[in-house]
Prior knowledge:
Elements (H helix, E strand, L loop, with lengths): L1 E9 L5 E10 L4 E5 L6 H8 L7 E6 L2 E2 L5 H11 E4 L11 H5 L2 H4 L7 H13 L15 H13 L5 E5 L7 H18 L2 E5 L11 E4 L4 E3 L3
Parallel strand pairs: 3-8, 3-9, 6-7, 7-8
Antiparallel strand pairs: 1-2, 1-4, 2-10, 4-5
Amino acid sequence: MVEIENLTFAYPSGGFRLRVSSLSLAAGERLAIVGPSGSGKTTLLNLIAGILRPDSGRIDVAGTDVTALSDAARRRFRASHIGFVFQDFALLDYLPARQNILYPYRIAPGLRLDAAARERAEALAAASGIGDKLDRHPTALSQGEQQRVAICRALVTQPRLVLSDEATGNLDPESKARILDLLFDRAEAAGAAVLAVTHDHELLPRFDRVLDFTEFRERAPS
């Protein structure tokens, strides 16, 4: 599902340089990434999603080299094939929760907003405990509820790959288990791989593999 070769990336402002000589993720596999803050974990997710472009190397997602796509093509590919749970949720305050969940269908020409998609959104919201809050705007939701909206949005298109940046970070233990069950169940049903950044080591036994990201980070030259 994901193949990375000879990847390098550094921000223009300096800080650290990311080097990943080889990394792979099979279809249906669940990989957790751990490591200290600032080690480049979120940067890697953004590179895989095509939000950032590497300085060199190749990132293949579901048979497509995302590094070779134009900016517009990367956006379309991301909306159609990748579900991304952002650490800051990235919800649109002017849209109610239901429309935030269905937002990928507004920006990806290849996605069809039909009755099945709407039913999926309702079912995901109900399963995550926000079924009665779909008409509320993000500003009227708690942080945990906003997080669940973001998770539903990542899953509603039945993506091939789910990228999760601390998806359960603001939830109580019972809610964490419930959301992780939802994330894994829906990913498994779609045959999707899950790549998750987490600081919660109690969740690690539920993943197939755990990658310590410290080894991929080095200081960038000044």
